[in-house]
Amino acid sequence: MNDHDRQLRITEIFLSLQGESRTIGLPTVFVRLTGCPLRCGYCDTEYAFSGGEWLDLDDVLETVASHSSRYVTVTGGEPLAQKACIALLQTLCEAGYEVSLETSGALPIDDVDPRVSIVMDIKTPGSGEHERNLGTNIPLLRGKDQIKFVICDRKDYEWSLEWLRGHELPAGIEILFSPAWGEMEPAELAQWLLNDHVQARFQIQLHKFLWGDARGR
């Protein structure tokens, strides 16, 4: 691995409570990589589109270790847009962390370390980016991974159910439904899921209720 492959452009590294997914509520170190090729209409991390600081992989690991947490989430932006993200994930796993990757699913996951739990955000029509979903990623998912749908309205909800009916997913994979913050009434989405007996986890972004801040601080 040359020096360039060890460089990552980082927006922030911070300790917070995991606000979503299977480990919600657990203290987690977030490594937010800079840059994203998508422009979702409901994006709450536009500040990560540009800027950031170039850090060596060893410096990232040192900062992560300073927070003394078992759980690490690599996020963005779209973290897989940076080549060195793959090395970061592998190194975190080798260091003994429980690692999750938050990705849009618009970029290939072929090289992601199998020890990583992938949280794949399948883009709904309301995002404006649903045509970017990469179908070749789906057969690569495993039971430890998670699929998330951010729901803006009834159309998004119906589209997501149809998507699930059209894909064969591995046993154990967890399906997450989230209301788009400020666009979808959480109780309405929850009732739809109950009415239709959808076997999925309803989730609200915990960090926004605690701090009202997308960064979770």
How does this structure look, described?
- The protein is about 20% helix and about 25% strand.
- The chain is an alpha/beta fold and about 220 residues long.
- It has one domain (about 5-205): Aldolase class I (TIM Barrel).
- The chain has a nine-stranded mixed beta sheet with strand order 3-1-2-4-5-6-7-8-9.
- Strand 8 (about 175-180), helix 4 and strand 9 (about 200) form a beta-alpha-beta unit.
- It is globular and about 50 Å long.
- The chain starts with 6 loop residues before the first strand and ends in a 6-residue tail after the last helix.
- The model has no long low-confidence stretch (mean pLDDT about 95).
List the helices and strands and how they pair.
Elements: E1 7-17, E2 27-33, E3 53-56, H1 57-66, E4 71-75, H2 85-94, E5 98-103, E6 117-122, E7 146-151, H3 154-165, E8 174-179, H4 186-195, E9 201-202, H5 206-211
Parallel strand pairs: 2-4, 4-5, 5-6, 6-7, 7-8, 8-9
Antiparallel strand pairs: 1-2, 1-3
- Count of alpha and pi helical runs: 5
Task: Write the H/E string, N to C.
Answer: EEEHEHEEEHEHEH
| CATH homologous superfamily classification | Aldolase class I
Query: Shape, please?
Result: globular
Q: Radius of gyration in whole Å, from Cα?
A: 17 Å
**Would you count the extended β strands for me?**
9
Unreliably modeled segments: none
| Class from helix and strand fractions | alpha/beta
The CATH topology is: TIM Barrel
CATH architecture: Alpha-Beta Barrel
User: Terminal Cα separation, in Å?
Assistant: 34 Å
Helix content: 10-25%
The overall pLDDT average reads 93
- Output the strand order for the largest sheet: 3-1-2-4-5-6-7-8-9
How many domain regions? 1
Quaternary state, please? single chain
Q: What kind of sheet is the major sheet?
A: 9 strands, mixed
Give the strand content: 15-25%
- CATH top level label: Alpha Beta
